[in-house]
Amino acid sequence: MKILTWEASKKSEQYFKLTWKIAQKATCERSKCWCIIVKDDEIIWQWRNTPPHNLESQRKCTYDKKSYDFKVTDKTCCIHAEQRAIMDALRNHPDKIEGSDLYFVRLDKEWNMSKAWKPYCTICSKMALDTWIKHFLLRHEEWVAQYDTEEYNLLSYQYSE
Ligand SMILES: [Zn+2]
Ligand SMILES: [Zn+2]
Asked: Is the pTM of this model over 0.70?
């Protein structure tokens, strides 16, 4: 993991600010997230977390995760912003996703950019690595963490609170 300071990464701050502004459009009721995928200074795709196809019939935001059987592999309610952005980037820019950077932002209850957590989502870490995205970027308070996706996937599996 590489730590980028604000000074060293004006560009990443620009992407995080943009992501933060639009994350409010996420329709998940549990958390508001947004993701931008950038290749050679061009945003190749961005998306938010929503129920699959944004279908109300599929909304599980208020379900208790403990109510699912242990065999249910993914107990999160919505399509993750990263999942959706990766799928759409593959569909729309399959030639550009390799070597790209993924910026991820989650909002807190007051709609501010929340401090990033340690990597833990093994669904998105596997998808990012498998599609050859180069970096996963998370914004902390004074700095940005830039992970290689290979490292990000390993760390996600090692997560503990
Ligand atoms: Zn949800
Ligand atoms: Zn995820």
From this structure: yes
Cα(23) to ligand 1 centroid in Å equals 14
pLDDT tens for residues 79-136?
Answer: 999 999 999 999 999 999 999 999 998 888 888 877 788 899 999 999 999 999 999 9
Paired residues of 47 in beta bridges: 35
Cα(85)–Cα(38) distance, integer angstroms? 11
The four Cα atoms 81, 138, 112, 7 give a dihedral, to 10 degrees, of -140
Distance 38 CA to ligand 2 centre (A): 18
Map out the domains of the chain as residue ranges.
2-54+73-157
Determine the distance separating the centroid of ligand 1 and the alpha carbon of 76, expressed in angstroms: 7
The CATH number of the structural domain formed by 2-54+73-157 is 3.40.140.10
pLDDT (tens digit, 9 = 90+) per residue, 25-48?
889 999 999 999 999 999 999 999
